[in-house]
Design a protein that fits this description.
It is globular and about 65 Å long. The longest helix has 18 residues. By secondary structure, the chain is α/β, with parallel strands linked by helices. 46% of the residues are buried. The chain is built from 23 helices and 24 strands. The protein has 4 domains: 197 residues, Cobalamin-binding domain (Rossmann fold, 3-Layer(aba) Sandwich), CATH 3.40.50; 60 residues, no CATH class; 122 residues, Transcription Regulator spoIIAA; 143 residues, 2-Layer Sandwich (Transcription Regulator spoIIAA), CATH 3.30.750. A hairpin with a 4-residue loop joins β23 and β24.
């Protein structure tokens, strides 16, 4: 790749002067260090606006007024991205202790982003530039678009729009809304006046609302928007919270999802327009054909987060796995948006030409690597009957027809690119989908060619009740996969291992369930080096269970290990060999024996 023709986007007045720019059209404020790579949302969105013919600058990780003023006032709008990870998750451990490292900051040093940074950035921009539109996007804005349980304050918070004075937020995948904003900018329409784009949300009062919103609120017209219980009501009643969450949760699919309206305070309502349409293959190719520097800005010594993705390729977006503890379905949607085979291989060829490339493509995949295509026998044309139905999870829908043929073609072609020694699959595979494929070719080639010594998989637990609440496949499915993986390794004469991920203290997991998992780990002679204690992140089904102690789908009671000691017991059981966990493990076994 010839990087001489590509330049980093302006980050200073000097950069602007060198390009002959008096004032930028858009300025993007990011919670992450500026890394010009398509895996970083701030770079991708900024490059899309640039590709649309507009000048764009980046203000990464501002901490004071001087930072916000660095590039002057933009002609069109400020764009705000909280970062790849929600700022509270990024700043705090599940024990609510400050993290000492930030992978998305220079040299991994923590402290470069404030808590709830989307709100902090938007407030500062509106104070300093009161007449400039502010549009926020990214994971933090997306998952907090409605009233939501906030783990760090242990309470229900308003929509982020009540605290972050943005004129508009983009939720989910932002490209299609950005294309619409570019069209509006081309026509000279003020961007703070646009309220009808799919995949966006805004705050309004009824007097200023559109006719469609008024009909929904005042007349109960549910043809396009559904009105859920107000913030005050869901804050006071956990069953109403569950019902409001499920209404939003069931309307994330653009093929059948409606808009959501929720009263926030006084006369203000948050209006969430219907989900953005998924990108077509042509659009995905366009997005990933844009040239990037594929590196952190040279003002940084290093940004650790680039290391895993620099030589990786995003093949697709979306996930129909619908794991209860994961926000992917709520954020990216169930439908898969994929790139063409040729477009993916072209990126592999760019990577192979990089002077630092050592011959190893770290990953070609997506949220789940082998979910490369929409598997629905209906052609992906879901009707209203599919709103609350899982494609795959504890049970697989009969309409799912597993097919790895195109993904297999990608891997085969990628490993034959000149300069490529190995192509790994590190974004994880869904073993239930893989095992359901009657054609075992992919499984064989995965083991033979695409495992870097260890393969990440996520069984998460073994207890049936917990797995049902997680919406993960039965344990026997994982066991079949594990045994087949071991058999193939023996057949090929390879010494490769599975790295299974397990979650402790997930809602529904009793101490007895946790002990059963420990017994299984002893049986297979395995102890995880790292354990993920359940982290109640915004707007997941599991977080709703954690907060309400109800299954929002049925309103049935759910046991939740909430006290620090109860959580410590379950966590210790997963790492049963560690000397410091001995007393906790003994206590857990004793309690289970008593009951």
């Amino acid at each position: 790749m010839d990087t001489q023709e590509i330049r980093f986007l302006p980050v200073s007045k000097q950069d602007m002067a060198e390009r002959g720019i008096d004032a930028l059209d858009f300025i993007l404020v990011s919670g992450d260090a500026y890394v010009d790579h398509p895996s970083f949302g701030h770079a991708l969105i900024a490059r899309l606006f640039e590709k649309g013919g507009y000048s764009v600058g980046i203000i990464p990780q501002p901490l004071g007024d001087a930072d916000y003023l660095r590039l002057g006032e933009p002609r069109k709008a400020f764009l705000v991205s909280g970062g790849v990870v929600d700022s509270m998750v990024n700043n705090y451990t599940v024990a609510k202790k400050k993290r000492t490292r930030d992978e998305y900051s220079e040299n991994g040093v923590a402290g470069r982003r404030p808590d709830r940074n989307v709100s902090v950035y938007c407030k500062a921009l509106k104070r300093l530039f009161p007449n400039v539109p502010v549009i926020a996007g990214g994971i933090e804005a997306s998952l907090r678009r409605l009233s939501h349980y906030d783990y760090w304050s242990d309470g229900v918070m308003h929509s982020i729009l009540c605290d972050a004075p943005a004129d508009l937020i983009i939720y989910g995948m932002g490209e299609n809304p950005v294309f619409e904003l570019i069209k509006a900018a081309d026509r000279g329409i003020p961007l703070d006046k646009i309220k009808n784009i799919r995949g966006t949300a805004y705050l309004t009062d009824i007097a200023s609302a559109s006719a469609k919103v008024k009909r929904a609120v005042e007349q109960g017209d549910d043809s396009e928007y559904l009105v859920v219980s107000s913030h005050e009501r869901v804050k006071a009643d956990k069953k109403l919270y569950c019902k409001a969450f499920m209404t939003a949760y069931e309307n994330t699919d653009p093929s059948c999802g409606k808009g959501i309206i929720q009263k926030q305070d006084y006369e203000r309502y948050v209006v969430v327009n219907p989900p953005a349409l998924p990108l077509t293959e042509k659009q995905m190719d366009y997005v990933y054909s844009i040239d990037y520097m594929r590196a952190p800005h040279p003002m940084y010594e290093s940004v650790p987060a680039i290391e895993e993705v620099k030589f990786s390729v995003t093949a697709h977006r979306g996930c129909y796995g619908n794991c209860s503890f994961c926000a992917l379905t709520y954020h990216q949607g169930r439908q898969i948006s994929k790139r063409s085979v040729g477009n993916i291989i072209a990126e592999v060829e760019k990577i192979a030409a990089d002077k630092d490339f050592k011959g190893y493509v770290h990953d070609i995949g997506g949220p789940s690597a082998n979910f490369h295509d929409n598997p629905c026998a209906k052609g992906g044309k879901r009707g209203n009957e599919c709103k609350a139905r899982d494609c795959i999870g504890y049970k697989m829908c009969a309409a799912v027809k597993p097919d790895h043929s195109e993904y297999l073609e990608i891997l085969r072609r990628a490993r034959n690119v000149k300069g490529v020694k190995k192509v790994f699959v590190r974004s994880g595979v869904r073993f239930d989908y893989l095992m359901s494929d009657p054609d075992k070719t992919f499984m064989r080639e995965l083991v033979k060619h695409h495992v870097s010594g260890q393969l990440k998989v996520a069984p998460e637990h073994i207890a049936d009740g917990t797995l049902r609440l997680m919406n993960k496949p039965p344990h026997e499915t994982y066991e079949k996969f594990r045994k087949e993986f071991e058999r193939l390794n023996k057949e090929f004469g390879l010494n490769q291992y599975l790295v299974p991920y397990f979650i402790s203290s997930h809602p529904g997991c009793t101490l007895s369930d946790a002990v059963k998992l420990t017994e299984y780990l002893k049986e297979i002679n395995y102890m995880p080096k790292q354990v993920q204690d359940f982290y109640p992140t915004p707007s997941t089904l599991s977080t709703t269970m954690y907060y309400t102690e109800l299954d929002p789908r049925t309103l049935s009671p759910v046991y939740v290990a909430k006290s620090p000691h109860d959580k410590a017991l379950q966590r210790a059981l997963l790492q049963y060999r560690l000397p410091q966990n001995k007393k906790l493990v003994e206590e857990a076994y004793e309690k289970v024996r008593k009951f």
